[in-house]
Amino acid sequence: MKVAVFSTKSYDQKFLETANIHYNHELVFFEPRLTYDTVALAAGFPAVCVFINDQLEDRTLQALASQGTKLIATRSAGFNHIDLNAAAHLGMTVVRVPAYSPYAVAEHTVGLILTLNRKIHRAYNRVRDGNFSLDGFMGFDLHGRTVGVVGTGKIGCIVAQILKGFGCELLAYDLYVNPHCEALGTTYVELSELFATSDIISLHCPLTPQTYHLINAEAIEHMKPGVMLINTSRGALVDTQAVIEGLKSRKIGYLGLDVYEQESELFFEDLSEEVIEDDIFERLLTFPNVLITGHQAFFTEDALKNIAETTLSNIKDFELGHPCPNEVSTKRIVAA
Ligand code: NAD
Fold first, then answer.
1. What's the confidence (pLDDT) of residue 265?
2. Strands 327-328 and 93-95
3. Pick the CATH number of 2-100+301-320 from 3.40.50.720, 3.90.78.10, 3.40.1210.10, 1.10.238.10
4. Residue 156: CB within 6 Å of ligand 1?
5. Which residues are marked as active site?
6. Which fold has domain 102-292?
């Protein structure tokens, strides 16, 4: 099938081309993001392949449909960048990669927790500078600390499993109980109790209208003083301005982010020679107890291999008229 691949980085092209040996799609790679301004690039392509910072809102989907696109294949698990209702109205099919490596994201999450706690990122620079002072590097034992996991699907459950190995007490909040997570000894509680009793809170639920700004001023007010907050899920789960106030008041003791609400303007690009105009993001970077990575939690060889394989297989299913297990329907987003 003829596929326009947007937001292509060299690593995407490498893994997709390798996997395509088994699928024989006609892949055309475009570096730009898919937005209303770039939609003309997809003219004549029955399939477009996109990533999380492509913007598939109503007018872009309408333009795609009028140019002959019938399939949207996202190389991600999340699909909040696609207006599913608009896609359904236009008769377009949306497919995704529901699980490419939950281990990649879970392991990065634990990496953020360990790095923030033991200040490994700061120690790296200090030791290279010949400064062997330990001042400011005091951490705490993870053993015996209470971790609250919000969203115990594939990633949240693996985070719980890893932290169980550290000897943490596990609390969780989800709309549904995950029996695998419960079997680890995780106690499911109300969100308010999780906020009030966790030393570390880690977010692993999807971004939906219900979870938008789940972490806001009110939620922060109910947290333990000095709480560690980790978000490797989606930026808009967190009201960043409220979190900045929480850091300034010392209520939040540590903040680890792999995602940021306005990340589409920043992440995945080298802006080291540019003036960054996002004052909220720049304020976050001034805190010594904030660690931000640029949406790299998924970024392992294993994950990229699985993303490429599943994406091309999804497209093949559509091409052959086979039912695709990874199709996203508007019914599913209502259920999520
Ligand atoms: P999943 O679908 O397996 O699990 C999500 C869980 O969240 C489910 O158990 C669901 O019941 C729960 N949930 C839904 N609505 C909720 C709500 N209102 N409150 C509490 N829980 C709720 O998804 P997953 O594979 O574990 O991924 C979790 C999230 O991680 C994704 O939605 C995506 O946004 C994010 N993600 C980030 C990266 C990265 O590189 N940083 C990579 C992949 C996924």
1. 87
2. antiparallel
3. 3.40.50.720
4. yes
5. 234, 263, 295
6. Rossmann fold (3.40.50)
